Amino acid sequence: MKQFNETILEVKNLQTHFFTDEGTSKAVDGISFTLNKGETLGIVGESGSGKSITSLSLLRLIPSPPGKIAGGSILFKGEDLLAKTEKQMRSIRGNEISMIFQEPMTSLNPVYSAGEQIAEAIRLHQKLGKKEAWAKAVDMLRLVGIPSPEKRAKQEPHELSGGMRQRVMIAMALACHPEVLIADEPTTALDVTIQAQILELIKTLQKDFGTAVILITHDLGVVYETCDRVAVMYAGKMVEYTLAKEIFTNPKHPYTIGLLNSLPRLDLDQEELTTIPGTVPSPYDMPKGCSFAPRCAHAKPICEQAVPDLESVGPDTEVSCWMYTPQWDKEYEAEEKVGVQ
């Protein structure tokens, strides 16, 4: 097992809310985690769980209005990013903390060549001249495995394949050798062969540069291949936080177990996949208690009345579930008494 001793990013009780005519949406509602140098943290969950809003919050890219980081702290190398000015954040974004966005076709500027867009980031943060920045941009395209990088650097995004555009995004994100890389669904809409190549590329570059990575995904197979630790999110909250190997060998939260059970298995004769009943609740109409209770087969009355805290249930595992609290045993005792009567 790899050891990570130096914390580079610490998120404490992060809350990101959106204030609209429909009401207040608590898209991220009090999550906390740490990221160490050289480590890969996976953030997983269904669509609408708050994964991408978490990543945008870390870089303070939440559109305001209607969005606002309502509370918490984001400590990068001991300094709170929420206390930084916008000018200070611009010097950090793309330089010390970079992000690979979910859809490269909409993230890349359609009227500038791939090389120009990478060179712009290099010139902005590393103060190089046009010629030196262009040469480094070509080198980055070569590093991420794009053939004929001199030619591709002169092409615009629409002239490149989906896999190449994603590699351009990775080249741009890593051009300034950031200490933290946030990858938001970096393999979305790519075929499985290209997915494997992109993930292998991120792992190789992480090893070469010692970059800490936050990988946002809904694909547990990707988590298994790349992550050291995992944060499982549901309806804006973190419901399980543990080592990646523990997720697959000893999952705790019913939601995590449901996600794993929904994966296709080659060792089982499955006529159809197992699903989690119901859907993620509307952020404007959240249940009073545990947000997963309406979909949980194990829910008790206490689950519908109060939200469980994220509690330690082992040396490396935290879970937000009443099943792992003394109150759960009291619920069983109460049910048994009712049954006897």
Structure description:
The protein is of the alpha/beta class. It folds into 2 domains: 1-96 and 178-341, P-loop containing nucleotide triphosphate hydrolases (Rossmann fold, 3-Layer(aba) Sandwich), CATH 3.40.50; 107-177, no CATH class. Helix content is 34%, strand content 23%. The protein contains 12 helices and 12 strands. It has helices spanning 51-58, 86-92, 104-107, 114-126, 130-143, 149-152, 162-174, 192-209, 220-226, 244-249, 254-261, 326-340; strands at residues 7-20, 23-36, 40-44, 67-76, 79-80, 97-100, 180-184, 212-217, 229-234, 237-243, 311-314, 317-319. Strands 6-7-8-3-9-10-12-11 form an 8-stranded mixed sheet, with helices on both faces. Strands 2-1-4-5 form a 4-stranded antiparallel sheet, covered by helices on one side. Strand 1 and strand 2 form a beta hairpin. Helix 5 packs across helix 7. The model is unreliable at 337-341 (pLDDT under 50).
